Amino acid sequence: MDRVRVGIIGCGNISSSYLTNARKFPILEVMTLADLDVERAKARAREFSVPKACSVAELLADETIEIVINLTIPAVHAEVALQCIAAGKHVISEKPLAVTREDGKKVLAAAKKAKLRVGGAPDTFLGAGHQLARKLLDDGAIGRPVAATAYMMSHGHESWHPDPEFYYKPGGGPMFDMGPYYITDLLQILGPARRVSGIASIAIPERTITSKPKHGTKIKVETPDHVTGNIEFENGCIATVITSFATWYGQYYSPITIFGTEGTLMVPDPNGFDGEVKVWRNDKHQGKEFQPVPFVHRLGYGRSVGAADMAYAIRSGRPHRASGEQAYATLDIMEGFLDASRTGKNHVVKAKYDRPAPLPPGLAEGVLDE
Ligand SMILES: NC(=O)c1ccc[n+]([C@@H]2O[C@H](COP(=O)([O-])OP(=O)(O)OC[C@H]3O[C@@H](n4cnc5c(N)ncnc54)[C@H](O)[C@@H]3O)[C@@H](O)[C@H]2O)c1
């Protein structure tokens, strides 16, 4: 199969993870890196032996690049994705797809018109832990899903992040920062959502940075730092979601748990790929602990697997899994929690969403099609 030539726009923190993991997929040929700061792109290109580093305009003018991986900051994800589409390239963006529904819709519409593909992070749901959780649910291991919980409880980022202010401004907050991992995984396991309720608060209105170099600087919190709500799925399951920057982290909860009519499924942290999956069944495990379930999918994927899947999909003409529609459905639900909190009314989900095809168990190393 012909390799797919890839460019990356945005060479900050997370780019090293993408560049490391892209090497595991021979279909991806990372040719060019670009950033507003070209020196940053050059440094990454040297570090990872990428042939070229240049301006965004130069990358977009290169007709041999088929897919752009957009690793810029959330505020410009949509703008950069639209530039890529205008330049005739498929694009897969880091999360979130956009910071407003309007911008997310513009990206999907532009790609549809140009007959190009749009994808969105996270791609952690393609990890062995999350694919196994979905397979167990689909195979009826816990019966019909009735309830789910998804908890991301933390105290925020001002103790370690060098410049944490943006986490507490509109477009930030725990839901937009971490929600994409949890909501995407719930969608791929449980399917499309019907409606969303929500209550959110600014629980700690002022933060003090304790990391360097801004130690001692105060932050005024201008977006909810504690966001809670429920999602009703079309299959009838109701998920209760909490994302918080206002609580102290504890190990007492499971990141995602699905409760069914026959048992319960513990899903690993959706900010990772391969965590352990555990099941407890009413007919087998009375008086016993949750039982770990052996993996059946390939272990060891990292950020880039979504782009590799898009590359295979382009070559074979099948749908790609980390789709723009999935990223948009996630964005719509995340906004839905905040809208519902503001208005006191449920947000009715209108975005069309189909679960992506599951990954087949037992794939060979570095390939995503059998
Ligand atoms: N850092 C992490 O651990 C992490 C983890 C998962 C996902 N993400 C996501 O990855 C994305 C990038 O995060 P990061 O931590 O690498 O950020 P970063 O600030 O370290 O890097 C972003 C880069 O994008 C460049 N950039 C900004 N606007 C641009 C534009 N218009 N055109 C070209 N380049 C532009 C910046 O110069 C910078 O080099 C974010 O969406 C974030 O949510 C980050």
Structure description:
The chain is of the alpha/beta class and 370 residues long. The chain folds into 2 domains: 4-120, Rossmann fold (3-Layer(aba) Sandwich), CATH 3.40.50.720; 125-292, Dihydrodipicolinate Reductase, domain 2 (2-Layer Sandwich). Helix content is 30%, strand content 23%. It has 9 helices and 17 strands. The strands form 3 sheets. The protein has a 9-stranded mixed β-sheet with strand order 16-15-14-13-7-12-11-8-17. Strands 3-2-1-4-5-6 form a 6-stranded parallel β-sheet, sandwiched between helices. A hairpin with a 2-residue loop joins strand 13 and strand 14. Helix 4 runs parallel beside helix 5 (101-114) and helix 7 crosses helix 9 (324-343). It is globular, with a radius of gyration of 20 Å. It binds nicotinamide-adenine-dinucleotide. Nicotinamide-adenine-dinucleotide (NAD) binds at residues 9-14, 35-37, 40, 56, 71-74, 76, 80, 94-95. Residues 9-14, 35-37, 40, 56, 71-74, 76, 80, 94-95 line the site of nicotinamide-adenine-dinucleotide.
